[in-house]
């Protein structure tokens, strides 16, 4: 079998067989398929798409390209649960949610990714913590999950290696937004993790990969349907990304915000609502709570008591980070040498923003990658981002820019000012939780897709 022939068939719109998909995935994993052919395959899928059977085959093939974790020998006294976001700006939920769920009796072996395009990556954030090992060996991963209740890592050489390589190619070839590749990439990591339950946070809005609500719902249905067909119990929430979720965007800045949140900082209402909603889904799917209200109460108690912060600290130390990060975050996290308030061009009320442009401003500062081999500057980014509805002017900037030099800060200032719309009256507040998609609804949609009723 020739890789170029498989690529040609997908380029021409054919549905690939199991043998063809496993051939391509094996070649991606072992390096026998080169970078150009990886990119061509991703582009062919981007333009021609895959049906649900192909998506499921691609996900399972990429999971099977490495080790599938078996947790039975760990004898964990609770369910293995995870959450995954499709990516956004200022989305720090994973860093907060994993230790909160762990404090409620769940075990969270979270395999996360790096930044894609304009979005921040959970791994990039954690690697701004000095010493944090985002790619430990499997035994260290198991031990950390058992002892801390959670471990957030990346794809090690053992876990879904084909996806790791294809993921990096997508980031720099304009194929990030492929629904098919997103579905397979996410689920490859989750199937490899040996989970009991998964909750998806699918973003919609100007900062999401799928800005339109209908596209986000299609992706959620694809993820939930394919995962449940593969035996992984999964639900999803559609959440708003028409503005950054947190008030910070940038790696060390988001870790600092996480530490502050876990230790009692208030004022993150939208972020907190998403954390509680996703956490409640995780506890429900894992049988750790009977109602959403009970689940949210347990999560809030874990936050208020300091139990969640203690779990986060235990995870960081177990993976090589400083043992006192919670107590002294500023002593360990990088600080940018230049800070500059981004003032609005005219005073008024923030009525909207191009969230993707805000994320790209962070990338331009050095907080993201243009090429897979690019190093990330952990210190740069934005803090104190004014949310929609905030009054800005001489007393409040649109954001505070953290930059490596004055020229970079000035470019970011211009980008932020252009990305934010100012008006005279506050807009009607929009909900941050837009829709819940359960397994039954997603599977029904899949059946309609297979019959040709839905694309």
Give the arrangement of secondary structure elements.
Layout: H1 3-11, H2 18-30, H3 35-48, H4 52-64, E1 81-85, H5 93-103, E2 108-111, H6 122-126, H7 138-148, E3 150-153, H8 161-171, H9 179-192, E4 197-204, H10 213-229, E5 233-240, H11 251-262, H12 269-285, H13 292-304, H14 307-318, H15 329-332, E6 338-342, E7 348-353, H16 355-367, E8 381-383, E9 391-392, E10 399-403, H17 406-419, E11 420-423, E12 433-437, H18 439-450
Parallel strand pairs: 1-4, 2-3, 4-5
Antiparallel strand pairs: 5-12, 6-10, 7-9, 7-11, 8-10
Helix pairs in contact: 1-3, 2-4, 2-8, 4-9, 4-10, 5-12, 5-14, 7-14, 8-9, 9-10, 10-18, 12-13, 16-17
Report on the architecture of this protein.
The chain has 455 residues and is an alpha/beta fold. The chain has helices at residues 3-11, 18-30, 35-48, 52-64, 93-103, 122-126, 138-148, 161-171, 179-192, 213-229, 251-262, 269-285, 292-304, 307-318, 329-332, 355-367, 406-419, 439-450, and strands spanning 81-85, 108-111, 150-153, 197-204, 233-240, 338-342, 348-353, 381-383, 391-392, 399-403, 420-423, 433-437. 47% of the residues lie in helices and 13% in strands. The strands form four sheets. Strands 1-4-5-12 form a four-stranded mixed sheet, with helices on both faces. The chain has a three-stranded antiparallel sheet with strand order 6-10-8. A three-stranded antiparallel sheet has the order 9-7-11. Strand 4, helix 10 (213-229) and strand 5 form a beta-alpha-beta unit. Helix 4 packs across helix 9 (179-192) and helix 10 (213-229) crosses helix 18. The longest helix is centred in the middle third of the chain and has 17 residues, at 213-229. It starts with a helix and ends in a 5-residue tail after the last helix.
């Amino acid at each position: 079998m020739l890789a170029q022939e498989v690529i040609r068939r997908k380029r021409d719109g054919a549905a690939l067989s199991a043998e063809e998909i496993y051939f391509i995935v094996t070649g991606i994993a072992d390096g026998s398929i080169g970078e150009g052919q990886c990119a061509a395959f991703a582009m062919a899928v981007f333009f021609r798409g895959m049906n649900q059977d192909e998506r499921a085959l691609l996900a399972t093939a990429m999971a099977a390209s490495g080790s599938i974790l078996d947790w039975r020998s760990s004898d964990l006294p609770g369910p293995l649960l995870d959450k995954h976001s499709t990516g956004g700006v200022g989305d720090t939920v994973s860093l907060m949610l994993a230790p909160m769920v762990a404090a409620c009796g769940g075990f969270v072996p979270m395999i996360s990714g790096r930044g894609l395009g304009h979005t921040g990556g959970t791994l990039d954030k954690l690697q701004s913590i000095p010493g944090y090992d985002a790619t430990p060996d499997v035994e260290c991963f198991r031990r950390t999950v058992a002892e801390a209740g959670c471990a957030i890592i990346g794809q090690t050489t053992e876990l879904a290696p084909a996806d790791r390589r294809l993921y990096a190619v997508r980031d720099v070839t304009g194929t990030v937004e492929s629904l098919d590749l997103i579905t397979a990439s996410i689920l490859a990591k989750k199937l490899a993790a040996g989970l009991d339950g998964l909750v998806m946070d699918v973003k919609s809005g100007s900062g999401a990969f799928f800005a339109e609500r209908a596209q986000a719902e299609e992706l959620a249905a694809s993820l939930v349907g394919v995962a449940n067909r593969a035996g992984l119990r999964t639900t999803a929430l559609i959440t708003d990304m028409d503005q950054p979720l947190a008030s910070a965007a940038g790696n060390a800045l988001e870790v600092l915000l996480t530490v502050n949140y876990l230790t009692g900082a208030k004022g993150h209402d939208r972020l907190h609502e998403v954390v509680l909603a996703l956490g409640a889904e995780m506890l429900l799917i894992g049988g750790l709570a009977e109602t959403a209200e009970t689940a949210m109460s347990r999560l809030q108690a874990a936050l208020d008591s300091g139990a969640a912060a203690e779990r986060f600290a235990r995870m960081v130390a177990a993976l090589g980070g400083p043992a006192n990060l919670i107590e002294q975050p500023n002593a360990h996290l990088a600080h940018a040498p230049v800070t500059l308030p981004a003032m609005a061009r005219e005073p008024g009320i923030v009525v909207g923003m191009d969230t993707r442009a805000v994320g790209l401003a962070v990338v331009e500062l050095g907080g993201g990658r243009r090429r897979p081999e690019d190093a990330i500057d952990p210190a740069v980014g934005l803090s104190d981002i004014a949310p929609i509805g905030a009054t800005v002017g001489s007393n409040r900037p649109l954001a505070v820019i953290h930059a490596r030099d004055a020229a970079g800060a000035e470019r970011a200032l211009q980008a932020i000012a252009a990305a934010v719309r100012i008006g005279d009256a506050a807009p009607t507040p929009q909900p941050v939780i837009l829709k819940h998609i359960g397994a039954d609804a997603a599977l029904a949609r899949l059946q309609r897709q297979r019959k040709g009723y839905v694309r």
